[in-house]
Fold this sequence. Notes:
Elements lengths: L1 E4 L1 H9 L4 H7 L1 E5 H7 L7 H8 L3 E2 L13 H13 L3 E3 L3 H9 L4 E2 L1 H10 L7 H8 L7 H10 L4
Parallel strand pairs: 1-2, 1-4, 2-3, 4-5
Amino acid sequence: MILIADSSALIALAVVDKLDVLDELFGEVYVPRAVYNEISHQSKDESEKLADYCKDKVLNIASETNLNVTLGIGESEAIMLYKEKRADFLLCDDKKAKKFARNFGVNVVGSLGVLLKAKEEKLIVEINPLIEKLKFSQIFIDDKTFELVLKMAGEV
């Protein structure tokens, strides 16, 4: 399977030290150049961890045009790379980008969906400690979503 990753979900997975599950679940993981530039910026938390994980996964897109002016360059490149590589999934947590991608025929999975799949595949034992770590980070995911994920994981 091929997964194209956007910055938002990569950062969330880096915060909980679970970037490695992407390779185990999806096999091929790629990051567009614009996303790599966003996540590897030295002033961002987790930038060193993200740069190290992504350094061999960076691809340039064939097109020079921005897909959608309402999306950031990273999200646009991720969707274009998804189409170019005929990927199976787009990893993204940004609400607007997810909606746009789905309307564009893209299969989207978020960081919490990855954690659920990782638990299902027995790559992680428990999601709750990871969610608690996300709650105290700069990642915003509403409480309702956290509760739903814990229920789906059988941890409520």
